[in-house]
Amino acid sequence: MEIKEKLGAIEAILFASGEPVELYRLSQASGIDVGTLPQFIRLLNERYDDSGSGICIKKLDSSYQMCTREEFAPQIRSILETKKNTPLSNAAMEALTIIAYNQPVSKSFVENVRGVDSSSVVNNLVEKGLVEEAGRLDVPGKPIVYRTTPVFLRTFGLSSVDELPPVDGRTGDPLEDDQLTLDLSDDEAAYNEDETEPLELDE
User: Fold this and answer.
1) Which of 69, 127, 152, 163 could form a disulfide with 148 if both were Cys (CB 3.0 to 4.6 A apart)?
2) Rounded distance between C-alpha atoms, residue 70 and residue 157, angstroms
3) Residue 192 to residues 3, 34, 85, 89: CA-CA distances in angstroms?
4) Phi/psi of residue 175, each to 5°?
5) For 86-122, what is each residue's pLDDT tens digit?
């Protein structure tokens, strides 16, 4: 298979999928060795950049997904007649931060850190696709634990959770770190479900 055919195969697979595709699955489907696939994807992105294309391929943990470029979001929303996205509340941002830095964790862990019931907040994050169930703890009651998703990575422009801002001297509460971009200021009503941050999620 020639280089052009390999590049075309990768494009076709990612376009048709519409969802993140694991590296090994992309390798199997395209017939391209796992070790060389990242090079072909890098070449595709370089071509997109050179041509001013409105699409790109993003790495999300061990998966790849074809996405539109952020600068064209207004035009895309306009043609799709997308309703204004609901921003995440402060409470949701807190819970998401706790899960991101300590995953996988249970709802009770999130509640212990926040100091208030967080069941509805976590459920909301699941509905938005930012977190997902990741099994159960091997303890009495076997509570469900949660982790972040590729949607979370894409929303915050990350390739993996390893790219999250470092939290030096973490004590179990990621909200204490001054460098954390998702942190809330001290004068905000931290647990007011009605207050919202200016983060918007793509539909």
Assistant:
1) 152
2) 10
3) 55, 47, 19, 8
4) -75, -10
5) 678 888 999 999 999 999 999 999 999 988 888 889 9
